[in-house]
Amino acid sequence: MRIKDGVKQVQAVIETPARAQAFAQLELALYQARASGKRLVVAVIHLDWFYRINETKGMAYGNEMIRAVAERLAAGGQRAASAYPEQGAQSTVESANRREKEASRPGSGGEAALEADSKHAKSHLSRGAIRGAEMLACQIGENDFLLAQELDRSQPDGGLAVEAMKYAVESACELEGMESRLTASVGASIYPNDGRTSEQLLSRAETALSRAKAQGWGKICFYSLEDTERLNRWVAIEASMRTALYERQFSLSCQPIYRISDGKLRGFEALLRWNHPEFGNIAPSEFLPVAEQNGWIVPIGEWVLREACQMLSSMQIYGLEQLIVTVNVSPLQLKDPAFPSMVANVLNDTGLSPACLELEIKEDKQNPCEQPLEVLTQLRAQGVRLVIDEFGTGSFSLASLKQLPINGLKISPAFTQHIDMPSAERHIVEMVIALAHKLGLEITASGVEYIEQYRLLQEWGCDYVQGFMLGKPMKPDELDLSSLRQS
């Protein structure tokens, strides 16, 4: 990167071809695979969280890492990684470092050598990547690489080839006296199984890459027909979501929560439902990730909050002032500094007391260590109750119990459903309840389906319970308010 007159001029680290040129070279690799009667694995490698390298060590260091990875791949890093795992990967980087240092010496002629090395790292078909097979390696984005490898009969599924590609990227990289390791997500497709054109193979490798990222990064995923079906479904749901909110296709269901000490009703959890005019009922586990990704979870979440508060406020007319409504909140909503003000406005508009609102917060799977402490503190100061949802299944640590201004924990059904059998979950739930009480936190156990589970939770001192045994989700207009007053 060069800075001149305050304007950043970004130059390519290596003279790798643009996407169109890479596509043309993939066509050539595919042509040769057809001619030889061999299969071809096409992989798209994404360097995970590469922005952190640029942020912590500078753009120049990041550029050198990209150069080292590109040279390693294009010069046959896979062969080195499979034959001599540590030495092969490391020697590629060390040789790149030596050439860089030689090039910087005045009059050494190193500039020409470095230029030659850059040209060598340039994407092209090179032999000897793995067992002498044809190999295409090129950079198609800032931190994305396209690789294509002919497969022989000893590689039935291409798994070993892709593993070697990933290993070449993730091997230690030492530059400027500092050692760094990258992680990579890989999506791959196979010719002719997954497509017969370069366009199909590349797009399906990228589709598989998106699944690898969704599974938690650092993964390898091969394309399957279900990927296309899943993507088509995703696109259809995303397109429909833009009108669903305004056409009032969303609705709320309420599942009761009971106080375990006396069996009385404590309140409800508001659960979002979507009845699509064409697709029918769409499960929240299917449409909520779409809303999270495209940002629609923010207006949808505000609608859910307002509807839930209005519902409980209308119940209080019938003498149900002591009830609490629980609403799930997305990590994306909590990142909005204006979220506490929006909650306050909703409470004011609906006339609901802040003490009657409980927000369930979940971990941010993309940035699990980043919790919006300031936003949570403002909500708690308003008098709104805060609970960690599905505690024990995410990456919320015990330290979060001390740091976050929460009122309680909600134990995931993944633990509750096994406590009536000899299991590790039985001891974990008992321990979590005891620990939470020592910290002054309340405990809600969800997913209670059998009387044995209820009795154990009662014995251990659990505060609240929720589950199908106690009541299934129902629409607000189906609630029997007279029986609720008695409970």
Indicate the percent of residues in helices. Answer: 40-55%
Stretches where pLDDT is under 50 for at least 5 consecutive residues are: 1-17, 77-133
Number of helices: 19
Total strands: the figure is 19
Residue-averaged pLDDT, rounded? 79
Q: What's the gyration radius in Å? A: 28 Å
Shape: elongated
Largest sheet: 8 strands, mixed, barrel
Terminal-residue CA separation: 69 Å
Walk across the major sheet and give the strand order.
Answer: 11-12-14-15-16-17-18-19
| Percentage of β-strand residues | 15-25%
The class by helix and strand makeup works out as alpha/beta
Key features?
487 residues, 19 helices, elongated, disordered N terminus
Could you characterize the architecture of this molecule?
With 487 residues, this protein is an alpha/beta fold. Helix content is 46%, strand content 22%. The protein contains 19 helices and 19 strands. The chain has helices at residues 19-36, 51-57, 59-74, 77-83, 85-103, 110-121, 159-170, 198-214, 225-244, 284-294, 297-315, 331-334, 339-350, 373-382, 398-403, 413-416, 424-438, 451-460, 481-486, and strands at residues 2-4, 7-9, 39-47, 124-127, 134-141, 144-151, 173-175, 178-180, 184-191, 220-222, 250-259, 265-276, 280-282, 324-329, 357-361, 385-391, 408-411, 442-446, 464-466. The strands form four sheets. The protein has an eight-stranded mixed beta barrel with strand order 11-12-14-15-16-17-18-19. A six-stranded mixed β-sheet has the order 4-5-6-3-9-10, sandwiched between helices. Strands 1-2 form a two-stranded antiparallel ribbon. Strand 1 (2-4) and strand 2 form a beta hairpin. The longest helix is centred in the middle third of the chain and has 20 residues, at 225-244. The protein is elongated. The chain starts with a strand and ends with a helix. The relative contact order is 0.08. Residues 1-17 and 77-133 have low confidence and may be disordered.
